[in-house]
Amino acid sequence: MDEVTGAQLIAEALKSQNVEYMFGIVGVPIIEVAMAAQAAGIKYVGMRNEQAACYAASAIGYLTGRPAVCLVVSGPGLIHALGGMANANMNCWPVIVIGGSSDRNQETTGAFQEFPQAVRSSIYGRPGATYIDIAGDMVNAKIDRASVRFVSCCPAPPVSQADSREITQAVRLLRAAQRPLIIIGKGAAYARAEKEVRELVEVTGIPFLPTPMGKGVLSDDHPNCVAAARSRALLQADVIVLLGARLNWILHFGFPPRFSPHVKIIQVDLCAEELSNNVRAASALLGDIGAVVRQSLALQSTLPMNYYTAFHHISELLPKDCIIVSEGANTMDIGRTMLLNYLPRHRLDAGTFGTMGVGPGFAIAAAVLEQTQKSAQRVVCIEGDSAFGFSGMEVETMCRYKLPIIIIVINNNGIYSGVDPKTWKEMEKMGDMTTIAPPVTLLPEAQYEQVMSAFGGRGYLVRTVEELRSALQESLDNTQMPSLLNVLIDPASDLFNYLQASRISTYFGAI
Ligand code: ADP
Ligand code: MG
Predict the structure, then answer these.
(1) According to the model, what pLDDT value does residue 205 have?
(2) Could you tell me which residue ranges the Thiamine pyrophosphate enzyme TPP-binding domain spans (predicted)?
(3) Distance of CA 507 to CAs 64, 169, 314, 426, 431, Å?
(4) Whose CA is nearest to atom 26 of ligand 1?
(5) ipTM of the complex
(6) What percent of the chain stands above pLDDT 70?
(7) Cβ(193) to ligand 1 under 6 A?
(8) Which of 19, 186, 210, 222 has its CA 20 to 30 A from that of 196?
């Protein structure tokens, strides 16, 4: 008969669950468990206090996603480990604590079958601490190996997505935001969602703030990291995306005066009980952070760009020494924060008098100077669609003198705001547009790029991020002629717009 001891079975059961590390302090009756663990290929680290052993084991769980074991004796050993278990539970980190206890004739039994269950309950759902109690006499009891059956290794936790209607709501909120902020917590680190979170930040251009252990999911020196202005970012944000962080003391409970009393929270967490804790979530996304962020990115890519997305990609491609000419309302306001200047006298905008229509003239002057000085610095003229209208015909001047100016029209179909083509058509059906069309609107999706191509320059109609990047790169490469990028963005891309749109929507049912 091939005999195995209880200790060997424990060790082999752990090994078959891919448990690789054990931290603890041995004593009767669990010395043999530690020895058997080593024999089974598990690394054993003897510590000086069970509390530290449990901290160590739970950190392995956080860092690898697979639980480690904290091995303790009964009584004081287990009591010392409690601090570590509480810490693991509060951190949502998996750990398995194994405690040896008195022999079975002195109390009730614990069985080996509990191992797979312990692994599963430590990592499934919200991760945390689990405890297994081993009766002392089972450690050295022998049984026939043939009678033992190991349960197969517990697979990684299943990943769930959020309700698609909630995703739609979240994306709407985010696009209507004026000062959005993403908070990255240690849940995002544990979820290994760095790729998805990076894409969310870089596609939307939204600034982010890491919690202490959320640091490094995206690096602290990322241009969108606003950790240096933490208090201000928290207070001024109107919509916050909470990725794996709780609104507890670390985040001042989400309450004023640290947060705006009107802040809307889009909360992503895999623990249903956590949703709307302390602050009612405007959108509660129950699911895995990586999966939920992918869902919302898929939805966003089917929608028109907003200011942040457009400016984010423009700023990535513009050379640091370019001369930025800018005018418009939102275009100039948001552009001021998103498009950086590195050199003096390289920004010209609506200025002291707030004059609209100055852009093309300023751009022509800058380009003529560049030509005279034979410098290779590019002139980029970023215009709201309304602002462009004031002096748009100067495009002919640019073409006549072959000035390689790049005009980017950020086109939201109006002054401050506009409507989409469908709504516009509905309004036209209702009768006299002079009594119906909101005074802020301009013709939806006007093809301003054709003004440029009419005179021999390059005109681009841009709807997507890919089109924006390739048109801008082509324009930067072209030093012979001016270009115009007509960037169609969401006409409901800022809060004012959003209100306007919802006012209009009361006429038309829904948008
Ligand atoms: P921090 O200390 O960084 O603020 P917290 O510990 O308060 O972070 O919050 C972490 C949150 O992340 C917990 O509510 C936990 O349920 C959640 N979480 C852990 N893993 C995932 C995951 N894969 N997907 C979604 N949420 C997760
Ligand atoms: Mg937190």
Answers:
(1) 84
(2) 330-487
(3) 55, 21, 36, 10, 14
(4) 269
(5) 0.90
(6) 94
(7) no
(8) 19
**Ligand 2 centroid to residue 310 C-alpha, Å:** 31
Q: How many CB atoms lie within 10 A of CB 151?
A: 15
Question: What ligand 1 atom has the least distance to the C-alpha of 271?
Answer: 16
- Using CA of residue 300, residue 304, residue 307, residue 309, what is the dihedral sign? positive
Q: How far is the C-alpha of 244 from the C-alpha of 270, rounded, in Å?
A: 8
Global pTM exceeds 0.90: no
Q: Is 185 in the pocket of ligand 1 (CB under 6 A)?
A: yes
Helices of type H across 46-130: 50-64, 76-91, 114-123
* Cβ neighbours, 10 Å, residue 473: 11
Tokens (6 digits) for 381:
């003229």
Q: Is the pLDDT of residue 344 over 70?
A: yes
The torsion angles phi and psi of 22, rounded to 5 degrees, stand at: -135, 130
DSSP 148-211: --PPPPPPPPP--PPPHHHHHHHHHHHHH-SSEEEEE-HHHHHTT-HHHHHHHHHHH---EEE-
Task: Locate the ligand 1 atom nearest the alpha carbon of residue 269 and give its number.
Answer: 26
Residue 82 makes CB contacts below 8 A (sequence gap 6+) with none
Nearest CA to ligand 1 atom 3: 185
Question: Is residue 115 very low, low, confident or very high in pLDDT (cuts 50, 70, 90)?
Answer: low
Q: For residue 307, report the phi and psi dihedrals to the nearest 5 degrees.
A: -55, -45
Q: Is the CB of 186 under 6 A from ligand 1?
A: yes
**Size (the chain), residues:** 511
pLDDT band for position 1 (cuts 50, 70, 90): confident
Per-residue pLDDT, 28: 86
Q: How far apart are CA 325 and CA 318, in angstroms?
A: 13
Q: In what order do the strands lie in the sheet with 283-286?
A: 208-210, 180-184, 239-243, 264-269, 283-286
Residue 497 has what pLDDT?
A: 43
C-alpha 93 to ligand 1 mean position (Å): 9
Q: Which atom of ligand 1 is nearest to the CA of 246?
A: 7
Q: Which atom of ligand 1 is nearest to the CA of 288?
A: 24
Instruction: For tokens 């513009």, name the residue.
Output: 318
